[in-house]
């Protein structure tokens, strides 16, 4: 297969997953509910905390940056933290407590009731995200999972957003698209409410 045909095939496959997401009223309603949850959290002085591994760590940082910096327009920053950014903290926790405690330890230290935790895991089985969800629930932090169509996280969180695919790249592409949609909805609702 030549490169151009491969690119077309890849795009067709990726678009098909997004079309499946668009066709699921349940998933669209969940994304809307998560957006409203975050709007409410921000209005009450809370924050969004995100975590993931590998590409999902990058996605958590990307989404946090959209909240703190800006998305479509200039406005004050919104408080968001990605738990995968501090190498000293990650290596200390990993060394002292184990890799599975990377995010739960940080949540225990930095979250408060009313915050929103978004765990990103394409498999839905990342042990450190599962442990973070468990501690978040104990701390009164609302939990959201961005995952694929399988995995344990789906049944553990308050708001599961399950991309209808088992293929990691397509799931990740949908995750950042979902993150962007949530950022856009939140930004508009808080800073341009008269236009809603």
TrEMBL record:
Cofactor: Zn(2+)
Gene Ontology molecular-function annotations: carbohydrate derivative binding; D-sedoheptulose 7-phosphate isomerase activity; zinc ion binding
InterPro entries: GmhA/DiaA, Phosphoheptose_Isoase, SIS_dom, SIS_dom_sf, SIS_GmhA/DiaA_subfam
A biological process from GO: carbohydrate metabolic process
Pfam families, alphabetized: SIS_2 (PF13580)
Keyword list, A-Z: Carbohydrate metabolism, Cytoplasm, Isomerase, Metal-binding, Zinc
Reactions performed catalytically: 2 D-sedoheptulose 7-phosphate = D-glycero-alpha-D-manno-heptose 7-phosphate + D-glycero-beta-D-manno-heptose 7-phosphate
Sequence positions that bind substrate: 53-55, 66, 95-96, 121-123, 126, 172
Domain SIS: 38-196
Gene3D superfamilies from the UniProt entry: Glucose-6-phosphate isomerase like protein, domain 1 (3.40.50.10490)
Cofactor note: Binds 1 zinc ion per subunit.
One of the record's GO cellular component terms: cytoplasm
Binding site for Zn(2+): 62, 66, 172, 180
EC number(s) per entry: 5.3.1.28
Compartmental location: Cytoplasm
Pathway(s) the chain acts in: Carbohydrate biosynthesis; D-glycero-D-manno-heptose 7-phosphate biosynthesis; D-glycero-alpha-D-manno-heptose 7-phosphate and D-glycero-beta-D-manno-heptose 7-phosphate from sedoheptulose 7-phosphate: step 1/1
SUBUNIT field: Homotetramer.
Other noteworthy facts: The reaction produces a racemic mixture of D-glycero-alpha-D-manno-heptose 7-phosphate and D-glycero-beta-D-manno-heptose 7-phosphate.
Family to which this protein belongs: Belongs to the SIS family. GmhA subfamily.
HAMAP family xref list: GmhA (MF_00067)
Biological role: Catalyzes the isomerization of sedoheptulose 7-phosphate in D-glycero-D-manno-heptose 7-phosphate.
Protein name: Phosphoheptose isomerase
Gene that encodes it: gmhA
């Amino acid at each position: 297969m030549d490169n151009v045909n491969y690119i077309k095939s890849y795009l067709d496959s990726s678009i098909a997953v997004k079309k499946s997401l668009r066709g699921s009223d349940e998933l669209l309603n969940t994304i809307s509910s998560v957006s409203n949850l975050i709007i409410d959290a921000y209005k009450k002085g809370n924050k969004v905390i995100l975590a993931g591994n590998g590409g999902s760590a990058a996605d958590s940082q990307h989404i946090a940056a959209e909240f703190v910096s800006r998305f479509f327009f200039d406005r004050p920053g919104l408080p968001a933290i990605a738990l995968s950014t501090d190498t000293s903290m990650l290596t200390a926790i990993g060394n002292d407590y184990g890799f599975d405690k990377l995010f739960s330890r940080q949540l225990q230290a930095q979250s408060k009731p009313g915050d929103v935790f978004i765990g990103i895991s394409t498999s839905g089985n990342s042990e450190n995200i599962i442990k973070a969800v468990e501690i978040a629930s104990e701390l009164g932090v609302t939990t959201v999972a961005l995952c694929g169509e399988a995995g344990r996280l789906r049944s553990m969180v308050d708001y599961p957003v399950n991309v209808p695919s088992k293929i990691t790249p397509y799931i990740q592409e949908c995750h950042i698209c979902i993150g962007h949609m949530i950022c856009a909805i939140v930004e508009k609702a808080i800073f341009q409410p008269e236009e809603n």
